[in-house]
From TrEMBL:
Pathway: Protein modification; protein glycosylation. One of its GO terms (biological process) is protein O-linked glycosylation via mannose. SUPFAM superfamilies: Nucleotide-diphospho-sugar transferases (SSF53448). Keywords: Glycoprotein, Glycosyltransferase, Golgi apparatus, Membrane, Multifunctional enzyme, Signal-anchor, Transferase, Transmembrane, Transmembrane helix. The chain crosses the membrane at residues 12-31. It comes from Canis lupus dingo. It is a single-pass type II membrane protein. PANTHER family: GLYCOSYLTRANSFERASE-RELATED, XYLOSYL- AND GLUCURONYLTRANSFERASE LARGE1. This is LARGE xylosyl- and glucuronyltransferase 1. Its main location: Golgi. GO terms for cellular component: Golgi membrane. It is found in: Golgi apparatus membrane. It holds the Pfam family Glyco_transf_8. GO terms for molecular function: glucuronosyltransferase activity; manganese ion binding; xylosyltransferase activity.
């Protein structure tokens, strides 16, 4: 460091020499060039041989003047060479695996006062250069509540992870909904060197609920005020971000700015880029008090330790109480109160260059924060219009945002080599299980899929449902991929009860689904449909994992285990609830079977009764499910008996039986070893039978399978011999596991398989 400082001193000295010596020389010449007390001009024009002054001078004076000018020019050339050599020796930013030093650029402020503030704020001595060590943990706090904000947080986190080179510790102040969603997401994301802690936002409501707030963020928009009290007492500094932020650079550069704070500066903020706090937006516009244009709180650097010593809690409360006597409520949530405090105590703020918070609301001066793409650091979509905001370069900003929105999050599971990470039990167990597999096994990819952890985003859209109080409620459970999306509206029209769906999508497909759902009146009118995104990874369709995800997040006592290609009969939801009571499912182990039929016609006049269905069955418009290709799968349902049945009847398990059933929520999960096509439902029904479930066929229930193109997995099953060999091997291993778990009673499954 001492060497760097000496080098910079030489650099500074050389620069001063270049500036000062010519000035001194010209002053000397100017002072020495008087004729009879009158100055002799030394302008370039008059020093030329043909100038009047030059012509009037004597030969000796002209010669003397030319010599002095040549001497000055020679000295300038020598100094320029020295300066260029000094620049060549100046050390650049260090890179590699040792440490990383971030030099902070000056801001591109939008006013003279802002430019002055940036220059003053960013000036530092050699010994105070901002340095972020390679393995230094960067702490980030985000307030998040609800389903939509949880999606926004994911895009923000992606943009941070994409650029980051340091371990990260996210502090998420979240309500119960956001915590459930994001805890599952980060647990299944398994990003190295990332730690996440949650703080219950609902418990903090009493701290700020006394403040009336008109902002669309509601009560959660005030919670940044209480971070000094909420975050751990030993946490000294933190970067606080709104959920509508997108990073275009390494967050370590922003973290390095903490080293520039001086004196009592405890808040790092960017000046507000709209005219809101100037009070001239409309007639009688009366904003909260602010210093100049005020500051935007979408990006905040907080020195927590100093704020606590300054009694920040008391400071902001007193200010808010005083201002609310006249203002009655806040318009911009916490931002109004932060600005009122800064107005009284301007020494608290360190003004960040405005490229750390380029605010894209309407009518802002954000365009003055950047001259080129490389100037951008942080983009803030702080308008309620979000991506529809008016800005000259909005297309560029929108594309940058969409890049992270649709970016494959699995690619962000990058190791930070050389940085020790905390022991993760789940990760260690996964590595142990994978290490025990034989990579030379021809079925290795099948076995590996069983242990693959798929990133999962629960409740991708708003979900709101309270189960019926009579404990008879039933949720339809299914899974799908992008090519079955068109079935959603039809199912919603046939089934009015709650639905739990697991969708196997890529990040880009998830956004396509979001746009599709938001554009559908049918889907948007239903708040009792839970959409859980399981992100694509690997070469197989993890059908049973998807079913388990959808089953696990059901709030009703009973599940209807269906598939996305089936339309339930009209009124099935209410019929099943009555059957639950009739068959006493609450106190007995029963699986109620809903008989399955199919049509080969894409346009079908759906039967409105059992009688109408039987008529269509006789006419050949409908068939029993898989009658042509896989009779064994549903033959035990005994369709001949069902035609005339008026009461529920019991059937026995048989080999390859795979009916669609209604069971209690505590039923066993599906076996994850079965992926793609084959035996995924068969194994589950076998497990139910081993646990002594009774199979009861419902006499007045039915569902119809709609035609579709063959899936990619069934195509692989039919065309790939090794696929079929591996499926047979997995079946045998499953049966052996059943024998170990259920003993003598499980022998019948081996016998039945041999006889089939």
């Amino acid at each position: 460091m001492l060497g760097i400082c000496r080098g910079r001193r030489k650099f500074l000295a050389a620069s001063l020499t270049v500036l000062c010596i010519p000035a001194i020389t010209w002053l000397y010449l100017f002072a020495g060039s008087f004729e009879d007390g009158k100055p002799v001009s030394l302008s370039p024009l008059e020093s030329q041989p043909h100038s009047p002054r030059y012509a009037a001078a004597g030969p000796r004076e002209r010669e003397s003047l030319e010599v002095r000018v040549r001497e000055v020019e020679e000295e300038n050339r020598a100094l320029r060479r020295q300066l260029s050599l000094a620049q060549g020796r100046a050390p650049g930013p260090r890179r590699g695996n040792h440490s990383r030093t971030y030099s902070m650029e000056e801001g591109t402020g939008d006013s003279e006062s802002l430019r002055a503030g940036i220059v003053a704020g960013n000036s530092s001595e050699c010994g105070q250069q901002p340095v972020v060590e390679k393995c230094e943990t960067i702490h980030v706090a985000i307030v998040c509540a609800g389903y939509n904000a949880s999606r926004d947080v994911v895009t923000l986190v992606k943009s941070v992870l994409f650029h980051r080179r340091n371990p990260l510790h996210f502090h998420l102040i979240a309500d119960s909904i956001a915590e459930q969603i994001l805890a599952t997401l980060f647990q299944t994301w398994m990003v190295p060197a990332v730690r996440v802690d949650f703080y219950n936002a609902d418990e903090l409501k009493s701290e700020v609920s006394w403040i009336p707030n008109k902002h669309y963020s509601g009560i959660y928009g005030l919670m940044k005020l209480v971070l000094t009290k909420t975050l751990p007492a030993n946490l000294e500094r933190v970067i606080v971000l709104d959920t509508d932020i997108t990073f275009a650079t390494d967050i370590a550069e922003l973290w390095a700015v903490f080293h520039k704070f001086k004196g009592q500066q405890v808040l790092g903020l960017v000046e507000n880029q709209s005219d809101w706090y100037l009070g001239n937006l409309w007639k009688n516009h009366r904003p909260w008090p602010a210093l100049g244009r005020g500051y935007n709180t979408g990006v905040i650097l907080l020195l927590l330790d100093k704020l606590r010593k300054m009694k920040w809690e008391q400071m902001w409360r007193l200010t808010a109480e005083r201002e609310l006597m006249g203002m009655l409520s806040t318009s911009l949530a916490d931002q109004d109160i932060f600005n009122a405090v800064i107005k009284q105590n301007p020494f608290l703020v360190y003004q960040l260059p405005c490229f750390w918070n380029v605010q894209l609301s309407d009518h802002t001066r954000s365009e003055q924060c950047y001259r080129d793409v490389s100037d951008l650091k942080v983009i803030h979509w702080n308008s309620p219009k979000k991506l529809r905001v008016k800005n000259k370069h909005v297309e560029f900003f929108r594309n940058l945002y969409l890049t992270f929105l649709e970016y494959d999050g699995n690619l962000l599971r990058r190791e930070l080599f050389g940085c020790p990470s905390e022991a993760d039990v789940n990760s260690e167990n996964l590595q142990k299980q994978l290490s025990e597999l034989d990579e030379d096994d021809l079925c290795y990819e099948f076995r590996r899929e069983r242990f693959t952890v798929h990133r999962t985003h629960l409740y991708f859209l708003h979900y709101e449902y309270e189960p019926a109080s009579d404990n008879t409620d039933v949720t339809l459970v299914a899974q799908l991929s992008m090519d079955r999306l068109q079935m959603l509206e039809a199912i919603c029209k046939h089934w009015e009860g709650p639905i739990s769906l697991a969708l196997y999508l890529s990040d880009a497909e998830a956004q396509q689904f979001l746009r599709y759902a938001q554009g559908s009146e049918v889907l948007m009118s239903r708040h009792n449909v839970a959409y859980h995104i399981v992100y694509k990874e690997g070469q197989f369709y993890p059908v049973n994992l998807l079913r388990n995800v959808a089953m696990k997040h059901v709030g009703t006592p009973y599940l209807f285990l269906s598939d996305i290609d089936f339309l339930p009969m009209y009124g099935l939801y209410e019929y099943l609830r009555k059957s639950v009571i009739q068959l006493d499912l609450a106190n007995t182990k029963k699986a109620m079977i809903v008989p399955a039929f199919e049509t080969l016609r894409y346009r079908l006049s759906f039967p409105k009764s059992k009688a109408e269905l039987l008529s269509m069955l006789d006419m050949g418009t409908l068939f029993t499910f898989r009658y042509h290709v896989w009779t064994k799968g549903h033959a035990p349902t005994n369709f001949a008996k069902w035609r005339t049945a008026t009461t529920p009847y019991r059937v026995e398990w048989e080999a390859d039986f795979e009916p669609y059933v209604v069971v209690r929520r505590d039923c066993p999960e599906y076996d994850r070893r079965f992926v793609g096509f084959g035996w995924n439902k068969v194994a589950h029904i076998m497990e139910l039978d081993a646990q002594e479930y009774e199979f009861i066929v419902l006499p007045n229930a039915y569902m119809i399978h709609m035609p579709h193109a063959p899936s990619f997995d069934i195509t692989k099953f039919r065309s790939n011999k090794q696929y079929r060999v591996c499926l047979k091997t997995l079946k045998e291993e499953f049966q052996q596991d059943m024998s170990r778990r259920y003993g003598f009673a499980a022998l019948k499954y081996l016998t039945a398989e041999n006889n089939s």
